[in-house]
Design goal:
By secondary structure, the protein is α+β, with helices and mostly antiparallel strands. It has five helices and seven strands, in the order ββαααβββββαα. Helix 1 crosses helix 3. The longest helix has 16 residues.
Length: about 180
């Protein structure tokens, strides 16, 4: 059972264990731990708790209407245009191109100095992992580089252009 906190800003917890839903989910999703390893790491958990965590996280992410960092509204999928470039945020990019035929975004990823094309889903898509999505907030009228719909493409642009929107999309608004 997941318990929401009555204190603003406190994360939801798993039963009376005091464990944050998000800490456990990160162990499962980002840490790549098996259910058994997570249960060993957090002895207060039961197998049913892991199913509750996954369900809670999926519903939470799919119901979001705003980007969690910037607070900006996420564009609805119906507004996306095939071939258009968008500003937004995922783990690895802040610029992506929508492929309406495949119902996914394409973006350049820079990993350890190697730049290559990856695809990523829209936030409400049904497939796991639910956290690995592109929170799309604005259509870009022009992009400084091309993002082809080709996973074998080679990047020919300026590396600095790839990260142009990082400060904006990874900053929380001033209060």
């Amino acid at each position: 059972m997941i318990v929401n906190s009555t204190e603003p800003g406190d994360p939801p917890r798993i039963r009376e264990t005091g464990l944050s839903v998000w800490v456990v989910y990160r162990s499962l999703a980002w840490g790549g731990m098996s259910d058994e390893t997570v249960l060993d790491k957090y002895p207060a958990l039961e197998l049913g708790d892991l199913a509750a965590v996954r369900d809670y996280v999926a519903k939470s992410i799919k119901s979001r209407t705003q980007d969690e960092f910037t607070g900006r509204p996420i564009l609805t999928k119906g507004l996306l245009r095939h071939g258009a470039y968008y500003k937004g945020r995922c783990r690895n990019a802040t610029i992506a191109r929508w492929n309406g035929e495949e119902q996914c975004f394409y973006h350049w990823r820079d990993k350890l100095g190697r730049i290559f094309i990856q695809t990523i889903r829209y936030p409400t898509d049904e497939l796991e992992p639910w956290w690995d999505v592109f929170d799309v907030v604005e259509e870009l009228p022009a992009c400084k580089f091309e993002i082809p719909f080709d996973l074998e493409a080679t990047f020919c642009g300026n590396h600095d252009d790839l990260v142009e929107y990082h400060p904006e999309m990874w900053s929380r608004p001033a209060r």
